[in-house]
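hey
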């Protein structure tokens, strides 16, 4: 590559500094390499690489394929028309000594074969594309990690205010769908010992999936909840059928439109509070290990935020109950004191000034038949009447005064 670009590396000062001598920037190959290296997105790197391959090798068509860890196709870019082509040139695209794909060019059968210069140019472009892909992956990974951290901060701050659990899980699902450009995110919560229920769905299939029950022992969601380990799949429907045909029938064919998906537990302990599922459209780029790790970290923090919000609500309810108990005790003491005062007052009303108790009136007596004092009794005595017969007072101790003569 150095010879083709006329680049000479040498020790300039003996202390590790390197001087680079490159050809003039009008060199088409160098300009293509620099243009590829400036891109920070994977898609832009792929598109620019195949375009440069067609221009520099004068090929009819160029194709760059990117493979996953297990050799599966994860991304692809092409330039030029489709049609029958003769075998052309092919170069491996490597990132840090690991093959991640291939860059190939082809011509029609009536065109001349590729030259040695074309082969060298393709090799340079493949190496530049590999380096640029590594940089783009690192940049996008850092960008996604920053987005997940912002989402974690947002969810945690929102849940600290103590919204209802339904609103909290809806926020968790919405942010989980937005960051990886997914089409759906859902939260499933345990419903007893044998099943989970789809609590919240953000995105497509909301009406179809909310309230659906998933078996704890015959579904991927139940496996993730029971084991606490995240899992990822290239297609939700295919993975569901392989796991349990009965679960697939219960969900229906609506999940056929879902593609790559990540299943992560909501929580960091052995007993998660639920499961978070994030699914992309069918045919999209699958989730890699870094994506799964970031989603799992987000789900763990979100679950702790939900638990914190619920604990805060419990503390508020406990404080309210304690305040009600205190008010009830104060009211109880006040009522007892007033009843005791009323009892003392009624007891005082039932005695004469000399302290003797007053006899209660008979039930048959009228309101006017009140007890007569000794004075009133003496006044009504027959001895008191001026016309009384003196013989009527015989033998009585009357207080009648002798009449003056």
């Amino acid at each position: 590559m150095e010879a083709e670009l006329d680049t000479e590396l040498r020790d300039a000062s003996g202390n590790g500094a390197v001087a680079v001598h490159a050809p003039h920037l009008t060199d088409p190959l160098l300009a293509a390499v620099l243009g590829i290296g400036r891109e920070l997105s994977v898609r832009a790197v792929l598109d620019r690489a195949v375009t440069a391959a067609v221009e520099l090798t004068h090929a009819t068509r160029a194709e760059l394929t990117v493979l996953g860890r297990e050799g599966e196709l994860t991304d692809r870019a092409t330039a030029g028309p489709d049609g029958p082509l003769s075998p052309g040139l092919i170069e491996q695209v490597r990132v840090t000594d690991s093959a991640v794909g291939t860059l190939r060019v082809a011509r029609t059968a009536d065109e001349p074969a590729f030259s040695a210069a074309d082969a060298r140019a393709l090799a340079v472009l493949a190496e530049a594309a590999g380096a640029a892909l590594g940089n783009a992956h690192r940049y996008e990974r850092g960008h996604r990690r920053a987005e997940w951290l912002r989402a974690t901060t947002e969810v945690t701050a929102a849940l600290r205010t103590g919204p209802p659990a339904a609103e909290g899980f809806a926020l968790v699902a919405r942010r989980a769908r937005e960051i990886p450009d997914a089409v759906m995110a859902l939260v499933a919560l345990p419903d007893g010992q044998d099943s989970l229920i789809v609590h919240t769905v953000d995105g497509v299939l909301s009406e179809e999936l909310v309230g659906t029950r998933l078996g704890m022992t015959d579904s991927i969601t139940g496996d993730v909840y029971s084991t606490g380990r995240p899992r990822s799949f290239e297609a939700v429907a295919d993975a569901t059928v392989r796991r349990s045909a009965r679960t697939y029938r219960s969900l229906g064919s609506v999940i056929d439109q879902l593609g790559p998906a990540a299943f992560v537990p909501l929580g960091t302990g052995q007993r998660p509070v639920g499961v978070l599922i994030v699914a992309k459209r069918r045919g999209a780029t699958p989730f890699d290990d870094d994506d799964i790790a970031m989603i799992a970290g987000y789900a763990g923090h979100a679950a702790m935020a939900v638990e914190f919000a619920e604990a805060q609500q419990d503390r508020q309810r406990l404080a309210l109950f304690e305040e009600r108990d205190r008010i009830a005790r104060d009211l109880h003491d006040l009522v007892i004191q007033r009843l005791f005062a009323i009892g003392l007052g009624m007891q005082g009303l039932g005695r004469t000034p000399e302290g003797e108790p007053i006899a209660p009136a008979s039930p048959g007596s009228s309101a006017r038949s009140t007890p007569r004092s000794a004075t009133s009794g003496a006044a009504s005595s027959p001895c008191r009447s001026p016309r009384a017969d003196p013989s009527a007072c015989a033998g009585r101790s009357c207080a009648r005064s002798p009449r003056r003569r």
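The mean pLDDT is 81. The first strand starts at residue 8 and ends at 11.
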